[in-house]
Design goal:
The chain has about 425 residues and is an alpha/beta fold. It is built from 14 helices and eleven strands. Helix 8 links the parallel strand 7 and strand 8. The longest helix has 22 residues, at about 50-70. The relative contact order is 0.14.
Length: about 425
């Protein structure tokens, strides 16, 4: 295969959070409410030695994640690059020429770290003696701005370009507050159609490190398990999300939404599943058909599916996503986190072949590579390890290149 040195490789779904940015109380409460099934089954299993190994392995992964989260943001960026360069062991995947994958030399690795908005919803009551901390979004934005500039200063010839997505939950803000945050974050004081080529050139400028905090973001991250309702019934809440969608559609700003039945759930589970289900977004797309929307995690279930003995068979979340991809021009999906296991790629390869057999080839332009780093450390050893599994997967090499290098250009409007 011919090697090109002018290409970018994109990690379209990753996180780079420090412990100071996370609502640790909610995180721990969530762990207690959503017990890891592998550990639970290991504990009640018949083999105590096996149970101990499983539990010990899980604790080791948690410690690995927490160790990384104790770093500053710029050190997390440095660690991701150094890991791919083999600094911590394993095969070297990157050198001074770039990232070596799929028979290509990718000159730069483009990260789109997805910020998370941990601001408590109005009326939230702390379960502890002291109230939940106020995780002000503006503080996190400033931290990211400083860290990205610091990375470019420290490593002017580094591997990474960094294009963060603004994480925000409109339910936590008034309409006026939301409007101000969105307008300030994307540098537009009024809603107006942005030519794609203009926006693309702006992003390429940001990738080179020339940006201000007010124009730092490449997209928006929404997280329904923490209370975001894509199409709320309440008039005031609807007004807020409609402003967000209108702004994003007119300015060609891509949106990534969490889309599986797991994750950082802080609201009633049934409510979280309803908010997160891709069918809930059908109403949004009816009103905003040109919206650039990425369904993260490809809708793959984190829990075993138990079919109902009677009644109509329900479509899987993944099938619903591909239906929306067929219907709307700018709908995408990524398979972040799922790639922690070789078994996933066997399953995913089979799924894609079935789509082909049904004449549904549109997916080839709409699937995005993502890692879900740092969260994927709950199931895998390292950032580099995720890339190893992707490179050695049964996916066709040209598809791997398309998912990681070609399709992200259109999603991000580069």
């Amino acid at each position: 295969m011919e090697t090109s040195k002018s290409e970018y490789f994109f990690d379209c779904h990753c996180h780079t959070m420090t412990l100071g940015q996370v609502n640790v109380t909610s995180f721990l409460e969530n762990l207690l409410k959503n017990t890891d099934w592998e550990v639970l089954l290991g504990i009640v299993g018949s083999n105590p030695h096996s149970s101990a190994r499983k539990t010990g392995g899980h604790v080791k992964k948690v410690l690995n994640l927490l160790t990384l989260m104790q770093n500053d943001l710029v050190d997390i960026f440095n660690t991701m690059e150094d890991d791919l360069k083999g600094k911590f062991g394993g095969e070297t995947l990157a050198d001074k020429e770039g990232l070596q994958l799929n028979g290509h030399t990718y000159r730069k690795l483009v990260l789109t770290p997805l910020l998370m908005d941990f601001k408590p919803l109005p009326g939230s009551i702390s379960s502890t003696y002291y109230p939940y901390p106020r995780k002000e979004l503006r503080t996190v934005i400033n931290e990211y701005s400083f860290a990205i500039k610091q990375y470019y200063r420290d490593r002017p010839h580094g591997l990474l370009y960094i294009l963060p997505f603004l994480g925000i939950n409109p339910a936590a803000y008034s309409y006026k507050e939301l409007k101000l945050i969105i307008e300030n974050s994307f540098g537009l004081s009024k809603l107006r159609k942005i030519n794609k080529s203009v926006r693309g050139s702006e992003l390429l400028t940001k990738m080179a490190g020339h940006f201000s905090p007010q124009k730092m973001f490449a997209g928006i991250k929404l997280y329904p398990p923490m209370g975001y309702d894509p199409w709320p019934g309440d008039k005031n809440e609807r007004e807020k999300v409609e402003f967000l969608y209108s702004y994003a559609q007119e300015a060609s700003i891509p949106i990534t939404t969490h889309c599986n039945d797991g994750g950082f759930v802080t609201v009633n589970y049934k409510q979280a599943v309803h908010n997160t289900h891709p069918s809930t977004w059908a109403k949004v797309l009816e009103h905003y058909p040109d919206l650039y929307l990425n369904f993260a995690h490809a809708g793959f279930s984190t829990l075993p599916h138990i079919p109902k003995p009677f009644g109509k068979k329900e479509k899987s979340w993944t099938d619903v996503i591909f239906d929306l991809i067929d219907k709307y021009e700018n709908v995408y999906t990524d398979f972040s986190f799922n790639g922690i296991s070789p078994k996933f790629y066997d399953k995913f390869t089979l799924l894609l072949s079935e789509l082909n057999e049904a004449g549904r080839t549109r997916y080839m332009d709409k699937v995005l590579f993502g890692t879900d780093f740092m969260i994927n450390l709950m199931g895998i050893e390292s950032y580099r390890n995720y890339y190893d599994l992707f490179q050695n997967s049964p996916l066709d090499p040209e598809l791997r290149h398309r998912f990681a290098s070609i399709n992200p250009h259109s999603f991000l409007n580069l």
